[in-house]
Amino acid sequence: MISVNNLSLQFGKRVLFDEVNLKFVGGNCYGVIGANGAGKSTFLKILSGEIDPTRGQVALDPGKRMAVLKQNHFEFDEITVLDTVMMGYTRLWNLMQEKDAIYAKPDFSEADGIRASELETEFAELNGWNAQSDAAALLSGLGIPEEDHYKLVKELSGAFKVRVLLAQAIYGNPDVLILDEPTNDLDLQTIGWLEDFLLEFKNTVIVVSHDRHFLDTVCTHVVDIDFKAIRLYTGNYTFWYQSSQLALSQRSAANKKAEEKKKELQEFIARFSANASKSKQATSRRKLLEKINVDDIQPSTRRYPAIIFQQKRTAGDQILQVEHLTHSLNGTTLFKNLDFFVNKGDKIAFLSKDSLAITTLFQILIGELKAEAGEFKFGQTITPAYLPVNNEDYFKSDENLVDWLRQFAADENKDEVYIRGFLGKMLFSGEEVFKKCNVLSGGEKVRCMISRMMLAGANLLILDEPTNHLDLESITAFNNALKDFPGAVLFTSHDHEFTQTVANRIIEITPKGSIDRLMTYDEYIENESITAQKATLYA
């Protein structure tokens, strides 16, 4: 168990946390959530001892071991992959080094023999004889082939480095495991492996992630950081979100009696628990929900952006037709003879092992690039709006946000009050609207780009990794807006939940052809015939 007692952290006049008291116990997985800048990563650094609090303390039970997912991807560049993983268990690694140093001595003394015997005993107790095989099994589970295990870490790609550091953190069954954004740069299969690993993990896990599907799968509790306070709730992210929204609506229903509200919450818990039985969650974890006290459910004070895409014109039957579209980059084929027809109401998720293929396709459709061959045609009624994966070119001026957004408004809508209204919907209020656009954070830039799209009144949205840089609140609001949007959507996203809940059609692009299926994302990835077809196309 790890306990937090009277924890406070202050930077100058800014108080990040104030008098926080929490206990994290074994067998539970705690998902830490909060708006951008709330202090999620800072809180993990305090727990791990990397940062000292202003007041209070963090206490780990005596004899317990903590492991942390390292964020410095270059720290182990000169060390082999296998050794880097084993270094995650510091005591075992030190034993191995001392033991090897003694055996390497040319003048092995009696004292050396006694010390070696002591080390061998402890080494066996720590399951040291299986150290290498256990490390190799973790690496293989995370998708790193055996031939890479003896390479130096610096020889691996950035995505593989992340996996090595993840293997290092989970190696040796630590008592407390702290993970900051562990799913970054992981593919679907590897995330699935990590989910399964954590579901079987019997000790304490504390994790920060913007991946709602991941949080929903592995978390038994939510740690909510909001307005200097940190509160602990039973359940995964979706349970926290839906229950807090229900409690919020109940608070405004003054005519409802307390008994009615309590019954409504109890019925919600029962429904959610029943639905959870279909998930990967272990039975014991689901039962936590059934035992929850309705008084523990509190309205959220979190602010959500008001994302509403309103069409200025309803789309006709002709949306978009793509015929024989072909493009390559530096001699590498991205797609060839790509054909598809967008129907009314289609919300299409585009997939590819090469994200550049999808970005290039979207840039061609929006007119930023010209295809090598083939053609496409929008319907006469179609007004597209585009959210690029890289928006830096839009924010090179020193205009304030009002002036920046005004340039994208129609002549009749350039009034400051009107523009500020759109910025207000995206949580830019008061003096914030006069921020210079070239000093915005990544999340703020994306929210500005969404405001730009809302102004367009488009009936076709083209979105390239729309959840990048956004916090969970913005992702959830964006997700809900697209589900309600009556027009067509073409998008790509690494967010599992986003893709599953928005898309009704999947198109996967490969250099050798495409797969086009009218189904949800989960149905697509679970379909064995599609998996076999993909293997052929990527071979």
Summarize this entry quickly.
The chain is 39% helix and 21% strand. It has 539 residues and is α/β, with parallel strands linked by helices. A hairpin with a 2-residue loop joins strand 10 (320-329) and strand 11.
The amount of beta strand, in percent, is 15-25%
Strand order of the largest sheet: 5-6-7-3-8-9
Helix percentage range = 25-40%
- Indicate the CATH architecture of the domain at 320-538: 3-Layer(aba) Sandwich
Could you give the count of β-strands?
A: 18
Write the layout of secondary structure elements.
Elements: E1 2-11, E2 14-24, E3 29-33, H1 40-48, E4 55-60, E5 66-68, H2 81-86, H3 90-103, H4 110-125, H5 131-141, H6 158-170, E6 176-180, H7 188-200, E7 204-208, H8 212-218, E8 221-226, E9 229-234, H9 237-252, H10 258-276, H11 283-290, E10 320-329, E11 332-342, E12 347-351, H12 355-366, E13 373-378, E14 384-387, H13 401-406, H14 416-425, H15 442-456, E15 460-464, H16 472-484, E16 488-492, H17 496-502, E17 505-510, E18 513-517, H18 521-526, H19 528-538
Parallel strand pairs: 3-7, 3-8, 5-6, 6-7, 12-16, 12-17, 14-15, 15-16
Antiparallel strand pairs: 1-2, 1-4, 8-9, 10-11, 10-13, 17-18
Helix pairs in contact: 3-4, 9-10, 10-11
